[in-house]
Amino acid sequence: MNGRILQVLEFNKITEQLAAQAATTIGKDYCLVLKPETEMDKVVELQSETDEASQIYRLNASIPLGGIKDIRPSIKRSVIGGVLNTNECLDIATTLYAGRQVKNFMIKMEEEDLPILQSLVQRIEPMRNLENHISSCIDDNGNMMDSASVKLKGIRSSIKTFESRVRDKLDGYTKSNTSMLSDAIITIRNDRYVLPVKAEYRGTIGGIVHDQSASGATLFMEPKAVVDINNQLQESKVKEQQEIVRILRELTNHIAENEALLTENVSVLAKIDFISARAKLGMQMKAAKPAINNKGIIRMKQARHPLIDHDEVVANDIELGDNYTAIVITGPNTGGKTVTLKLIGLCTLMAQSGLRVPAFDGCEMAVFEDVYADIGDEQSIEQNLSTFSSHMTNIVSILKQVNHKSLVLFDELGAGTDPQEGAALAMSILDDVVSRGARVVATTHYPELKAYGYNREEVVNASVEFDVRTLQPTYRLLIGVPGRSNAFEISKRLGLQDNIIDQAKNHIGMDSKSVENMIASLEQSHRQAETDYEEAHNILQESEKLRDDLLKEWKQFEDKRENLYKKAEDKANKALQNAREEAEAIVDEIRNMKSGAELKEHEWIEAKKMLDEAQPDLTKKMPAKKGQKKEAKQQLQTGDEIKLLSVNQNGTVLEKISENEYYVQVGIMKVKVKRDELQLISKKSSVSEKPLATVKGSNYHVKTELDLRGERYEDALLKLEKYIDDALLAGYPQVSIIHGKGTGALRKGVNQFAKKHPRIADARSGSMGEGGSGATILKLS
Questions:
Q1: Alpha-carbon span 736 to 705, nearest angstrom
Q2: What is the largest CA-CA distance in the chain?
Q3: pLDDT tens-digit map of 332-363
């Protein structure tokens, strides 16, 4: 991509906005040198990177990029033998810490689908030893700490001792010789402690003069009594500096040894910041991720020029490359055509740079090998070129390079010369570029080009709407409607006499009048179509809201029905328990009856009646619906699918007890019912299938669902394993595992367990009536 097109379309202003979103100086450097890519795979990768960072920000999270410094110069200096200062070493430590924070953040996001960013952070090497080594020597303010070495701690201790002794000595002078001092203070000159002595007492005090006041009345003297102590103090400070340099050299060598890893860390962090900045700019622009194609198709809904204020810019729908490959925007110079031209070019460059496009979701952008543009007045005085000559020079250069993978933008094509010749040249140039398969957008004010689009299938006319009432352009692009001159309407509104306007209309030919009338009709039809579209869109939104409300009501109904089922299950269990207690009482009664010599007939009849009455009555029969035909009785077999009319639920026949009684399973309940309460739904399939429950062992009362909500991960998997064993023994064909939605860890664990278990044939998420994504349905084999 040539640099001139980036300048013409002001792409540098986009990179400046991008750099403002970067958190680090190295990230800003990446932003400022951003260039569009020309290979589709690379463009798709860049867009995927930006999308992953945008996904993080959509989750109200933020990549921790604070504390990252550009340590590359320091690393380079350490390698060539230089000694880094404390601030440089501290910058390296803070950058290492920031790298660890970024890596830990991405590890915590492992449940999100972020393969590119998570792959990047794997390249970050924490290097805790180097970070701790630096942190143990240098504090947060860049000062060498006493704990950096035992020797440094001893030297600083001696410095404090010497300073204390010097001050004690000088304090004696300030207390006993105040008349000889200009001020009773201790000060420092040339790194030595001194006193401000009046000049006339120089000989009385004695010692070394280090400085004097501007007037010469005060001398800053070091008394003889403290000269030796000051000398010892200075020697200790020299040793301190020597020890600090030794420690810094040791740290520098450690840094140089890790040069490759440090450089890689900085590179990765810079790229992550660069990706993050692209996502932030997209959010600021309210932009969308474009679908990328190599077919030359551009499709944007409500696209906005990214360099115009969001509150002022006018959005437009733009399509190019599918039904037509060229757009010719005609009409007077109203100020909107060039903006549209730059919008298309700039959005193309942004998409090919991995940036989001300022348009609605669902936009689509093409990847071009080159974008060419001839925009603006480029008259050259130095080269003695007129406006027309300058434009033609650019166009000739473009025509030498353009091909089917090019996007070409012409502004005021053919302008600057005789109108008839200019229009003819414009049509000829457009024909040539279109014939090569390039995508073209051109603006012109020549009326001759208004019919150009109607005579060529690959070309469509367009115009920028102009409001004759306000005498201002609306900047709305009208595809399929050529621009028309508004000279008569504008002149009339500005006060030109009607007779002059009528005479002017007589001077133009009938053909021109017909074209203008046709264009006016097209504009009216276009406005009506937009009005109809807006009305249809509102109806669609209302329909979607109604659908959402219905789904919400259905969800509430499902929840309520589930609660009713739970209550029914509890009631059934209680009824069954009562039945068992009554049965036990009957058995005890029969045992007592056996103690007699013989049982009388009426006593057996009474016992049988008690057994029959022990059958639990779970619910009353539901009345048959009006008009429902009574089903002819059919013999039922084990495995037939039936409906239990009393509870209006489907089930399966487990066993035939007598001609008029069956043992059936409905959900988790197994009950004995009369034939009249059963409606046959389908006969048992010829393919041998396992009944719902045929094993009547210790696990006979295993439920068909397992609730793991609230369980710890390890405990949940242990319960799941035991439950699957019990379900297999009970002969269940499938079971439901309720794990809830939460963080998704339990769902993931259940699916992994299902993949490994040899007796689990399939695992799927529950449907709307089965708990949705909060449950997993396991098919057992």
A1: 4
A2: 147
A3: 665 578 888 999 999 999 999 999 999 999 99
Radius of gyration of the chain (CA): 44
Range of the structural domain that residue 278 is part of = 3-127+258-285
> What tens digit of pLDDT does each residue of 713-757 get?
888 888 888 888 888 887 788 888 888 877 788 888 888 888 888
Question: Do residues 184 and 120 share a domain?
Answer: no
475 and 337 inside one domain? yes
Listed in sequence order, the residues at least 6 apart from 411 whose beta carbon sits closer than 8 Å to its beta carbon are 337, 338, 341, 373, 374, 375, 376, 442, 443
The answer as to whether 575 is a domain residue is: no
Is the distance from CB of 731 to CB of 759 less than 8 angstroms?
no
Tokens of 745: 């860890």
Classify strands 669-674 and 661-666 as parallel, antiparallel or unpaired.
Answer: antiparallel
Domains identified in the chain, total number: 4
**Do 74 and 160 reside in the same domain of the chain?**
no
Q: Within this chain, do residues 153 and 210 fall inside the same structural domain, yes or no?
A: yes
Strands ordered across the beta sheet of 775-780: 705-707, 734-738, 775-780, 760-765
Q: What mean pLDDT comes out for the span 69-80?
A: 95
Q: Which residue from 418, 413, 475 is spatially nearest to 444, judged by alpha carbons?
A: 413
Give burial (CB, 10 Å; 0-12/13-18/19+) of 583.
Answer: middle
Please name which of 114, 23, 26 lies closest in space to residue 64, comparing C-alpha atoms.
23
Does residue 518 fall inside a structural domain? no
- If asked whether residues 719 and 766 sit together in one domain, one would say yes
Q: How many CA atoms lie within 13 A of 40 on its CB side?
A: 11
Domain with residue 267: its CATH number is 1.10.1420.10
CA–CA gap between residue 572 and residue 559 (Å, rounded) = 20
3-state secondary structure of 330: strand
